[in-house]
Specification:
The chain is mainly α and 91 residues long. It has one domain. It has three helices and no strands. The mean pLDDT is 89. It is flat, with a radius of gyration of 17 Å.
Length: 91
């Protein structure tokens, strides 16, 4: 179905698939338990998964781009990711 030639892309996709599986499992657990309190606790645990996945996939992408883009472009990308986290923490 898919022809993967780049291990970095495969790793990035694999981490996103793992993340989606965790999210889906959490949703099913919320439905199974059927209580707001339990669903809230599950959601709190998921709050750790999202940023971890973002950082991991972004790091893999930057490693894959390391020799292909300029230092200035790499700096802008890193600054953009830092601004995302800064904006989230200021809410």
């Amino acid at each position: 179905m898919f022809l993967l030639t780049d291990k970095i892309v495969a790793g990035m996709a694999g981490i996103r698939i793992l993340s989606a599986t965790i999210e889906f499992t959490a949703a099913m657990l919320m439905l199974k338990f059927g209580r707001v309190e339990t669903a809230f606790k599950i959601n709190a645990i998921l709050a750790l998964v999202g940023p971890t996945v973002l950082l991991t996939v972004t790091t893999l992408g930057l490693v894959g781009l390391a020799g292909k883009i300029s230092f200035g472009s790499m700096s802008i990308i890193v600054l953009g990711v830092a601004l995302i986290f800064l904006g989230i923490n200021k809410l």
